[in-house]
Amino acid sequence: MNNLITYDQAYDLANILIKKATKEELAECARLLALNLAHHQVKHGEIAVIDTLTLLRSFECTEEHLNVLMEGMLNLIGVLVNVCGGVGQSKH
User: Fold this and answer.
1) Fewer beta carbons under 10 A from the terminal one: N or C of the chain?
2) How remote is the C-alpha of 67 from its chain's centroid?
3) Is residue 90 over pLDDT 50?
4) Does some domain include residue 78?
5) Which domain of life is it from (predicted)?
């Protein structure tokens, strides 16, 4: 897991980027994340939605659970930054 940023910090940063994004930018992020998921499914097999929901709804904070949550947030942040620009950039 990335020790330079906590999950709460990553979650907050993702929320900041989401609030700054336009509807079109968010749609592009969704398309890119869907392609990333499809690529993983083709290479490694289907990810059952029920497994993901179970993990998200779990109250157990295992290392695996935290790693999945953190990697998900970092993926989201990466796509948002690439599509929308950096945190400090203003839109014109």
Assistant:
1) C
2) 12
3) no
4) yes
5) Bacteria
